């Protein structure tokens, strides 16, 4: 991805690009986009020592990041050409600690209006146990508001 202003693209083109080349934050944290499209996205992360907080378990911010990525990409799959979006609210609940598990963040769009959207995400471990649950509210941007995003 470059720092230049992107041209308007369809949701399909955006998802194709994301599946082809992960966003920089994915490389930084070590997650990858596994699936995306039609209001849904799956992000996976192998949790390890590099993700730990001072107590020795996975830092909650990392869980929040993968949930946010899954929900954001799911929402991006609903955008029309020339539209962008921003997250205006995000909430997460943590249910169990994580050490070295393979995590799956499954994001989906629950409601997509003209201006506001609502997404949810479940983060599970390799055994299907619920680790965290998150939701976010997204604001659709158009015209000048969408420029450069």
Would you summarize the structure shown here?
By secondary structure, this protein is an alpha+beta fold. Helices cover 22% and strands 38% of the residues.
Over all CA atoms, what is the radius of gyration? 15 Å
Low-confidence stretches: 1-8
Q: What value does the average pLDDT take?
A: 88
CATH architecture: Roll
Question: Could you give a short account of the major beta sheet?
Answer: 6 strands, antiparallel
Give the CATH superfamily.
Hotdog Thioesterase
Please tell me the total number of domains: 1
Portion in beta strands: 35-45%
Kindly state the number of beta strands. Answer: 6
**What oligomeric state is this?**
single chain
Quote the distance from N terminus to C terminus: 12 Å
CATH topology: Thiol Ester Dehydrase, Chain A
CATH class annotation: Alpha Beta
Protein structure class: alpha+beta
Provide structural commentary.
With 149 residues, the protein is of the alpha+beta class. The protein contains 3 helices and 6 strands; from the N terminus they run ααββαββββ. The protein has a 6-stranded antiparallel β-sheet. The termini are close together.
Describe the protein's topology:
Elements: H1 11-20, H2 24-29, E1 31-37, E2 40-46, H3 60-76, E3 84-94, E4 102-112, E5 116-124, E6 130-141
Antiparallel strand pairs: 1-2, 2-4, 3-6, 4-5, 5-6
């Amino acid at each position: 991805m470059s720092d230049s202003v992107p041209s308007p693209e369809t949701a399909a083109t955006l998802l194709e690009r994301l599946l082809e080349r992960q966003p920089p934050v994915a490389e930084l944290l070590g997650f990858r986009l596994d699936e995306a499209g039609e209001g849904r996205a799956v992000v996976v992360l192998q949790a390890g020592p590099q993700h730990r907080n001072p107590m020795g378990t996975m830092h909650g911010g990392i869980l929040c990041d993968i949930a946010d990525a899954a929900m954001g990409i799911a929402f991006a799959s609903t955008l029309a050409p020339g539209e962008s979006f921003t997250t205006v609210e995000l909430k997460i609940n943590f249910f169990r600690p994580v050490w070295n598990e393979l995590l799956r963040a499954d994001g989906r769009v629950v409601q997509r209006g003209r201006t506001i959207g609502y997404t949810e995400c479940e983060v599970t471990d390799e055994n299907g146990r619920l680790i965290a649950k998150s939701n976010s509210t997204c604001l659709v941007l158009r015209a000048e508001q969408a420029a450069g995003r």
